[in-house]
Amino acid sequence: MHLLAAKPGQIADGSEAIDLGQTPGDIVVLSAADSELACLSRAYAHLPEPKPSLRLANLLQLSHHLSVDAYVEDIVAHAKAVVVRLLGGVRYWPYGIEQVSAECRKRGIALACLPGDDQPDPQLSDHNTTAPAAAHRLWQFLVQGGLENASEFLRYGASLIGRESEWREPRPLLRAGLYWPGKAMLSLDDLRAEWTDGAPVAGIVFYRALVQAGQTAPVDTLIAALQERGLNPLPIYAAGLKEQAAADLIARFYDDARPDITLNCTGFAISQPGAAQAATPFDAADAPVLQVVLSSGTLEDWQIGKNGLSPRDLAMQVALPEVDGRIMTRAISFKAAGRYDDATQCNIVEPHPEPGRVAFVADLAANWVKLRRKPTAERRVAIILANYPNRDGRIGNGVGLDTPAGVVEALNAMRRRATRSRTFRRVATI
Predict the structure, then answer these.
(1) Using CA of residue 172, residue 177, residue 178, residue 181, what is the dihedral sign?
(2) Separation CA 354–CA 350 (nearest Å)
(3) Which of 266, 268, 235 is nearest to 253 (CA)?
């Protein structure tokens, strides 16, 4: 098997063996987070000369074993320091970690394998060749995030390979906060200055990493679309819904603003499948939560593919969020190679919003708000069941509703688990 040459401006999904076409560099950073790579690229561009050469790559492009072998032989083997940041631990890139670690130990290259979140991972740390204190400091630069910490990460990395470089310790950034395009939002009162008096509030919750990397175009477009429909957007960025500090801050904003709807752009779920529904930061609003997808794939792949979203997106942004009772909408943005960074020899991938799909989600949110504010007696509920066109076709057969009792039980189950929201309390009443 031969390797395909990766081309600037194209995004590879790692399913084929490819050669990223990079030349060796002093420092190599591998990460699955496009936003992190974009931030490091921006930070590197602002570093003064002389500076060590830097190579950035998304390790998702190196899923194929042949791709890993080629990258290790051509790039890793010639580096002075290698940083791998991996969400999910060794099991998500086992062959890559094995080969990179072996090569670095063989050649005495400084290697730091770092968790992709803010939780320690001893299995990853076991592969490090750098001192524990050095690896921890590198990790904290990336955990805290932002352009300033990215710059210090690179300066500190330069010091580890023998370059004279002044650096500062990682500076903590807010784990969650308010956001508005082009403005600093320090309090809810600052945000209310952008609102229309008396209009319903629509919460938008998205990952802090988008703010860190300056990749908020999908959120900005969604904010504008909601405003056009008479809603007051409440955009909140957060490191994650499971992080207590971020969850508490969201809950305080919600307790004060009381949104009529939430548009959640984060993945995963707080509740566990099969268990009782856990409390969420959105509970104070007692309102529906719409799941909005910021796809990790490209628009072209989505258009020509037969499976819609990728398995990764389906798991993280469709299947798991359903456990929390969220209502699926659609993808409003897709990844695109915004530019090729010659200095780091990396495609800088950014999320690009699709206006028509944003408009659909904004319309859906506005309609849910109208439904929520409509008196219960005036609501009309439709129930749609499958009926297969075969000789023994039975209504509801697709979900096992082949008896009236089955239909009743399914609707009762919907009522129990769907949501605590007032909007749904009478939906499944028999």
Answers:
(1) positive
(2) 13
(3) 235
Task: Note if the bond before 233 is cis, omega within 30 degrees.
Answer: no
Residue 250 has pLDDT above 90, yes or no: yes
Is 167 part of a structural domain of the chain?
no
Q: Is 324 within a domain?
A: yes
Residue showing tokens 């400091």: 137
pLDDT digits (tens, 9 = 90+) for 322-372: 888 899 999 999 998 778 999 999 999 889 999 999 999 999 999 999 999
169 found inside a domain: no
Range(s) of the domain holding residue 396: 377-424
Q: Clarify whether residues 251 and 360 are in a common domain.
A: yes
pTM, two decimals, is 0.73
Residue 185 shares a structural domain with residue 135: no
Domain CATH for 151: 3.40.50
